[in-house]
Amino acid sequence: MTEEIKTTEEIVEVTPVETPVVDTPVVAEVVAEAVPVKEATVATGNVAVAHERVERGADRGGNRGGKGGRPGGRTGGRPRAPREKPEFDSKTISIRRVTRVVSGGRRFSLSVAIVAGDRNGRIGLGTGKALDTQVAIEKALKSAKKNMIQLRLTKNKSLLHDVTAKFKSAEVMIMPNKGRGLIAGSSARPILALAGLNDVTAKFYSGTKNKLNNARATMKALESLAYRHGEAPVPATKVPEAVVEAVVTENK
Question: What pTM, to 2 d.p., does this model score?
Answer without folding.
Answer: 0.59
